């Protein structure tokens, strides 16, 4: 399980990095064509917007997996280890519920309902752009379940430094 988690995290990090490099190149191309050639490339702005959406949602899956997302850990860090584990379980169930209900189900419905609408410049179906919602949901669910399994089996430490039984 741990090797699968690390492999998937590496793949996500590679895809995020690749998207960032492509975005930088497209931005430089747009600036160059606008100011040096006097004729801006019209496809770059829309492509950058779509890449930013995809990068943000894939990045959120990576952040949930590596526990690098924004979180307040003041209370969990002061709890005894057993209570911190229960809090981690509750937090994980809330994340899984949100990912399944909002991102997966609603995202899939949004993607399907927008297959007929095409983007103004690239002329691609907007459903393909919105497909990142259910895709990121699958990634978040898989990685959150892997983290939960590893934490509950004591193969991965809690993301916040919970107090030991003797300290609380």
Give a structural overview:
The two termini are 32 Å apart. With 168 residues, the protein is mainly alpha-helical. Helices cover 73% and strands 0% of the residues. The protein is built from six helices and no strands.
Give a brief rundown of this model.
The chain has 168 residues and is mainly alpha-helical. The chain has six helices and no strands.
State the main characteristics.
single chain; 6 helices; mainly alpha; elongated; 0% strand; 168 residues; 73% helix
Strand and helix map with partners:
Layout: H1 2-35, H2 43-66, H3 74-78, H4 81-113, H5 126-130, H6 132-152
Helix pairs in contact: 1-2, 2-6, 4-6
Shape assignment: elongated
Q: Provide the helix percentage.
A: over 70%
Major sheet summary line: none
Number of helices: 6
């Amino acid at each position: 399980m741990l090797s699968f988690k690390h492999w998937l995290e590496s793949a996500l990090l590679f895809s995020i990095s690749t998207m960032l490099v492509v975005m930088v190149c497209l931005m430089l191309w747009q600036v160059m064509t606008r100011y040096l050639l006097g004729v801006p490339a019209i496809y770059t702005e829309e492509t950058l917007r779509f890449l930013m959406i995809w990068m943000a949602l894939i990045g959120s899956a990576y952040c949930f997996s590596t526990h690098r997302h924004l979180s307040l850990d003041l209370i969990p860090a002061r709890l005894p280890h057993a209570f911190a584990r229960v809090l981690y379980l509750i937090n994980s169930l809330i994340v899984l519920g949100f990912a399944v209900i909002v991102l997966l189900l609603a995202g899939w419905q949004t993607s399907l309902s927008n297959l007929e609408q095409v983007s103004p410049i690239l002329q691609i179906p907007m459903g393909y752009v919105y497909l990142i919602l259910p895709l990121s949901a699958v990634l978040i669910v898989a990685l959150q379940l892997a983290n939960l399994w590893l934490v509950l089996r004591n193969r991965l430490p809690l993301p916040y430094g919970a107090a030991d039984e003797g300290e609380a």
